[in-house]
Write a structure and sequence with these properties.
The chain is of the alpha/beta class. The protein contains 2 helices and 4 strands.
C-alpha cells in the first residue's frame, strides 16, 4: 500500500509502517508542510496514496471525495502522540 503521512502525523511512524512492507512518504519530505489541504490531496490522488492525517478537514467528503482516492484515514486520538497512534 502507498501511504502519505500528513504533517500532523509523527514522522517517526514512517519507518515503522515501511517495515510492515508499505511504501510511505511524508508531507514534510515532499516539502508540502504548511500548504493547503488541496495541495496535499491532489498529489496523493494522482499517485494513488492513502492520506493518513489528524486533520478533520479531510473527513469532509464534499471537499475531499474519498471515492476519487485510494483512501483517506482521519485518526482521532485524545492526544496525538506516537504511542497512542
Amino acid at each position: 500500500m502507498k501511504i502519505k503521512l500528513d504533517e500532523n502525523i509523527d514522522v517517526r511512524l514512517a519507518p515503522i509502517i515501511a517495515a510492515a512492507g508499505h511504501d510511505v512518504d511524508t508531507v514534510k519530505a515532499e516539502g508540502l508542510s504548511g500548504k493547503p489541504d488541496e495541495t496535499i490531496y491532489e498529489p496523493c490522488r494522482a499517485d494513488a496514496r492513502v492520506v493518513v492525517t489528524l486533520d478533520l478537514d479531510f473527513s469532509n467528503p464534499l471537499r475531499f471525495d474519498p471515492a476519487a482516492t485510494e483512501g483517506i484515514v482521519v485518526i482521532r486520538v485524545p492526544r496525538p502522540v506516537l504511542p497512542l497512534v
